[in-house]
Amino acid sequence: MRDVRICFVGDSLVAGLGDRQCLGWAGRLAVRAIGAGQPLSYYNLGVRRQTSAEIAARWEPECAQRLPEGTDARVVFCFGVNDAVLEDGRPRVDPEQSADHLGDILRSARARGWPALVVAPPPSADEEHNGRVAKLGELFATVCERESTPCIRVFDPLRHSATWMREVTAGDGFHPSAAGYEEFAALIVPHWLLWLAEPGPELPIVR
Questions:
Q1: Fewer CB within 10 A of the end CB, N or C, for the chain?
Q2: Cβ burial, residue 49 (10 Å; 0-12/13-18/19+)
Q3: pTM check: above 0.90
């Protein structure tokens, strides 16, 4: 049996903030994989409020401790919501800089031999913020296409999901509770299971 080890790297949405079941979407993907007959070791490396710049600075050594040689080692990335938050009238991280950080991360993952999967950032209850997040999703898809990395874009389906929007609105505007994370995970599951079976670059960029 393959020794599959996967790090989920990102911000509070990766950590599953707001979910009283303490699973978030990442934990639910791990549960679905095991239910489909693919045991794995799952590491959640989500940190609240972190931007792509902070994640780019920390992700590799954190993953290296958990993904030793000789394992089927992989990384799932999801970030960008905090990049788009305004501070002093400007996004915390410029969109082009966010895209550069993602490109650097994906090239480093490839050099390590770690197949990567990118989940583009989801919407919030703030429509102005959503405009900036939607732009990031476009930029991230372009980076992933260039780097031959599968990218799953959840922004549009979640923006039109009554469950997701109700949940984030009832919460802090950014984080849902369990039902919202279940909706998030359900969008990813088909692509996730394919990626677990064969994490090659032929997997589509899901728009």
A1: N
A2: exposed
A3: yes
